[in-house]
Amino acid sequence: YRFGETVSICFWDDSWKPDSYFDKIADNAKRGLHTLCLLDIKVKEQSIVNLMKGNDIYEPPRFMSVQTALQQLMEIDENRGNPGIVGKDSLVVGVARVGCKDQSIVFGRAEDVASDEAADRLGGPLHSLVICAQGTEGLQEMEQEFVEQYRI
């Protein structure tokens, strides 16, 4: 299998939008490798206000969706002037609850996998994302045959 380094994609907020993981995605793309993206999970997190006040009150759990991850990645791609690393036409695979009876897989262009239709097909958490290798390295024949059955 042609996977490069795995990355973790974290939730953004109004004052913090890290993007260092994008460098590994770009490096993997340059080497013709797929990238597995593990998506953020927030459980037992305190708000800044509750943390500062010493309140033992926690925020509800949050689980990043494939759609949120793709929106962030496409924004980074555009802001960095690297169109195409994770652009709207990049091929991606979104997966949910892998290994469970109700697992779900969607495949297609990033823009399509970020759609409401794809979100409905994936369903609830936990999600992960694969950014497919690009160009002539792209998907191998066996990989292509497998993911085509999940095209959105």
TrEMBL record:
UniProt superkingdom: Eukaryota
GO molecular function, one term: methyltransferase activity
GO BP field: protein histidyl modification to diphthamide
Family matches, as PANTHER family: DIPHTHINE METHYL ESTER SYNTHASE, DIPHTHINE SYNTHASE
Name listed for the protein in its UniProt record: Diphthine synthase
Source organism per UniProt: Perkinsus olseni (Perkinsus atlanticus)
